[in-house]
Amino acid sequence: xxxxxxxxxxxxxxxxxxxxxxxxxxxxxxxxxxxxxxxxxxxxxxxxxxxxxxxxxxxxxxxxxxxxxxxxxxxxxxxxxxxxxxxxxxxxxxxxxxxxxxxxxxxxxxxxxxxxxxxxxxxxxxxxxxxxxxxxxxxxxxxxxxxxxxxxxxxxxxxxxxxxxxxxxxxxxxxxxxxxxxxxxxxxxxxxxxxxxxxxxxxxxxxxxxxxxxxxxxxxxxxxxxxxxxxxxxxxxxxxxxxxxxxxxxxxxxxxxxxxxxxxxxxxxxxxxxxxxxxxxxxxxxxxxxxxxxxxxxxxxxxxxxxxxxxxxxxxxxxxxxxxxxxxxxxxxxxxxxxxxxxxxxxxxxxxxxxxxxxxxxxxxxxxx
Length: 369
Known about the structure:
By secondary structure, the chain is of the alpha/beta class. The protein has one domain: 3-Layer(aba) Sandwich (Rossmann fold). The protein contains 15 helices and nine strands. It has a nine-stranded mixed beta sheet with strand order 1-2-3-5-4-6-7-8-9, sandwiched between helices. Strand 2 and strand 3 form a beta hairpin. The longest helix is centred in the middle third of the chain and has 17 residues, at about 205-220. The radius of gyration is 20 Å and the shape is globular. It starts with a strand and ends with a helix.
């Protein structure tokens, strides 16, 4: 294995970058309005205008930078690639260490409430930023010489963990699945908020048919972003990398549509929480590189992982993009725990950190017996 190095890290956005962001926001040109109801054709004009104005004049990035820098941030060099991470240690480590992987358009910041709750339950927790997300370098070649799941395993070994649990949702669920399949000697179990599509679709139950029909409907109605990011991501990246208002509009729609907010995003996210996510993408200029997992999935496909008998837990949140029934997950995974929650959506680490932490902890405790 190549050498492993790790060092402390602190965010330090230059003053000129903060001033440039405010200048761009203050000169935002909005598209002409349409006579459609709010949100029907995309991000609502008035909601976005309010957030843009606050981002330009009122939002205090420096206070959030200080808050994030109070977290145990590190930069690890793994196989020659820089990986940003949080390394939240338990005061009294009594359970399995864990690696948590977010999806898109999330960042490491969204995982902080979950990480601290798990640490409070006795687990050391590692939250790496995906390659090309915020402070992690993207892979220098295409396809990546070292896939993300392999980077994660080498990261955990470098940090001193030779047996651990892995959790992920969205993109993170796919990475977590591949990690578990490739390194079952080290991964005690995987905890997922999404599952791979099954190969065998014979003898589907009514619940499975409804689930697949729901995915088809969602893809037709809300999957355009995915198709664009899979096929022509760079064309999109130019605009979003030049216009902070455009970047905010692109991700704001997702935070509203995919969370358990009933159409009112303020019930789940404060304005500052949304703008921290947007600011992290903006200041690191990584919204374009965050599309790479989508493009690589199509342009550089990898063999499907074989999950075998790896213990798997599935957490099903009712307002996630899809909610797989247990029997569908069992077509691919060795499901030993399945939990259906009453609340929460795609961003459960932020929306329902207490419930999610308890579910992961209880799964880990059963594995340790």
